[in-house]
Amino acid sequence: PFSAVLVLGTGGGSAAAAYVALSLTRRRLTVPFDVCQGYDPPLYASAADRPPGTGGTSGRRDQARAGSVLVVAVSHSGDTEETLSAYDTLRGGAADPAVVAVTGGGRLAREAAREGHPVVALPTGMQARAAFPGILAALLGVLDGAGLTAGAGDFRAEVEEAAALLADLARDWGPEAPDPPPLALARETADRLLVVYGGAGPTEGVARRWKNQLAENGKTLAHWYTVPEAHHDEVVGFDAPADLRERLHVCLLRDDAAESPKMRRRLDVTRRLLSGRVAGVTEVEALGRSPLARALSLCLYGDYLSCYVALLRGIDPTPVSVILELKKVMAGG
Hints:
Layout: E1 2-8, H1 11-25, E2 33-36, E3 68-75, H2 81-91, E4 98-103, H3 106-115, E5 119-121, H4 132-145, H5 155-173, H6 181-189, E6 193-198, H7 203-216, E7 222-226, H8 242-245, E8 248-254, H9 261-274, E9 280-285, H10 291-312, H11 321-331
Parallel strand pairs: 1-2, 1-3, 3-4, 4-5, 6-7, 6-8, 8-9
Helix pairs in contact: 1-4, 1-7, 5-10, 6-10, 7-10
């Protein structure tokens, strides 16, 4: 019954989960999927600009109206300024989209309840980026429940497998492990700029999540991009001066189960081409059986990496003082 999916959300929790969800479901989605990270939702989803006859103008919302846009408003706090602005724009117009709120409370939860929109409750008592797995599960559950993913498997079984795998990996990669691989990579990259490439399956969305986590946890800059797109522009940038390139470390996120022969060759060529041009090239392979487990294994690796980078530099990964300062300034007008 839906013509498109639009996720409203920002940052390393909401938007990161949306992009990983898109990477996981891209080959199975039956409608377009878009993410709005700012104040203004796209024209196709806004009220006055929908073609005549495609949007209601009065009465209670019909959550399954044919041709409507499914809007998923995501905010862990429920008070994210940009998400609320986009949500207000959409619910105040004639297009009258179907809306699901994914939130831990705040104004979004209150407004959604008042409007009669379904609310998926997120766990609280943590920073938004730590709620990423719950947000991702909620988004995948909404897509599955709305019947928008063709050929979907047993979603509950995938979640259970992923949870068990992550528990095992937390023991292997955590600070009590003898030599966790994310710590080894952190030692190589703590004083360098990490360039993260994704390509096959969920790795594009995961590469973006790594950049988020290295900024918020690691308190450092990182860059992410995709293969094969990098082969059409960015790869030329590795002809930069040697003193710049020697500060770069490239990380290729691999998912052998999802890589086609062409993609596998692209990534292999990328590794060979960049080896010797930068300080180092590391490949991190996804683990697990299901696509969800494999995506989350790569995400967890990046989570640990970002925390280890901060700790090696003597920094607490938890605070995000610059973000809090930005919110304070914005709230003051």
